[in-house]
Write a structure and sequence with these properties.
Helix content: 40-55%
Largest sheet: 10 strands, mixed
Structural class: alpha/beta
Strand order of the largest sheet: 2-1-3-12-11-4-5-10-8-9
Strand content: 15-25%
Radius of gyration: 20 Å
Bound molecules: 3-isopropylmalic acid, manganese (II) ion
Number of helices: 11
Shape: globular
Number of strands: 12
């Protein structure tokens, strides 16, 4: 029987609770579709850091490279200054494992309430390809004369052609494979960020014209993208963008698909090990209450199986999720689902 080795990082806050339900559903899918998942747990997160003073052990990154995939809960602890765990665990893993794509579907499931008036599942169904290895999030910069009136802080958005090209290539290929509207939109800011987005835009059109004549190319400034994601989400098929804009617009996208309870993403290294996670945070105030919505983790599990090549199992999970959003859950918000965290996991797991 085919066995996949999965590293599990439950992380902080409600991370462990949602990961528990994600694994429940993954195991049900594995049993049904005849494969095995073997899990190895890692305790990286705020608690470990507070106890040991260590964010990530030296061996961690190389150990994680050996797995078929990584399944992550959430990183972020109220007792730890913002930035330490986020940069030290989440961003470090993304960068060092060279997970250069952050794939974030924005898909409204049936029965889910969206704040977008007059829009339904027909209109809200697109995917954001966020560049995940470069840009302003990599920490290029510094502070000098700290604490003085002359203090200077610099944080630079740096991209090289290689990073831009490999992200664009993934996005073009993905758009072709998705085969929906065959439209790839570049989201940038060419009117102000005239260096970095000049590079992105030139690379986008060069590659598109040369290798992807079947894919329609569109360009939107990031501010306009936000507007159209609200007003006309049906315009979008696949959006490709840089690291920071991708971070920002996917939170907007998430709320249009029902919020952080459902939004999932994959940090993908097409040539290496990829990591799947709910895109929301650790929601510490709900920790241990059995009220958090585990669907984002469950959907991240489905994305992981898709990535591993278990397409049938992946779509069975998604179908089961859709069934319960359509017919069971009252809301996707923590504490308002009409079911507990574990009950939602049971419902999805029994749905196929
Ligand atoms: C996300 C998060 C992270 C990011 C933070 C926690 C580092 O907001 O996954 O979108 O900015 O990428
Ligand atoms: Mn974010």
């Amino acid at each position: 029987m085919k066995t996949y080795n999965i590293a599990v990082i439950p992380g902080d806050g409600t991370g462990p609770e949602v990961v528990h339900e994600g694994i429940k559903v993954l195991d049900a899918a594995a049993a049904k579709f005849n494969f095995k998942l073997s899990y190895t747990n890692y305790d990286f997160g705020g608690e470990r850091y507070l106890k040991t003073g260590e964010v990530l052990p030296e061996s961690a990154v190389n150990e994680l490279r050996q797995f078929d995939a990584i399944f992550l809960g959430a990183i972020g602890h109220p007792g730890v200054k913002p930035g330490i765990l986020e940069k030290g665990i989440l961003l470090r893993l993304r960068f060092e494992l060279d997970q250069y794509i952050n794939l974030r579907p924005v898909k409204l499931y049936p029965g889910v309430e969206t704040p977008l008036k007059g829009k339904g599942p027909e209109q809200i169904d697109y995917v954001v390809v966020r560049e995940n290895s470069g840009g302003i999030y990599t920490g290029t910069g510094g502070i000098s004369m700290k604490g003085t009136p002359n203090e200077v802080a610099v944080q630079s958005a740096v991209y090289n052609r290689f990073q831009v090209d490999r992200c664009l290539q993934y996005a073009f290929e993905f758009t072709r494979k998705r085969n929906k509207r065959k439209t790839l939109a570049l989201c940038g800011k060419t009117n102000v960020l005239t260096y970095v987005f000049d590079l992105w835009e030139r690379a986008f059109h060069e590659m598109g014209a040369k290798n992807y004549p079947d894919i329609k190319r569109e360009y939107y400034h990031v501010d306009a993208t936000c507007m159209w994601m609200v007003k006309n989400p049906e315009w979008f098929d696949v959006i490709v963008t840089d690291n920071m804009f991708g971070d920002i617009i996917t939170d907007l996208g998430a709320i249009t698909q029902g919020g952080m309870g459902i939004a999932a993403g994959g940090n993908i290294n097409p040539e290496g090990v990829s990591m799947f996670e709910p895109i929301g945070g650790s929601a510490p105030k709900y920790t241990g209450m059995n009220v958090i919505n585990p669907l984002a983790s469950i959907c991240a599990g489905s994305m992981m199986l898709q990535h591993l090549g278990e397409e049938n199992a992946a779509s069975a999970i998604e179908k089961s999720v859709m069934e319960i959003t359509a017919h069971k859950l009252k809301s996707l918000s923590a504490g308002k689902m009409g079911y507990s965290t574990t009950e939602v996991g049971d419902l999805v797991a029994k749905g196929f």
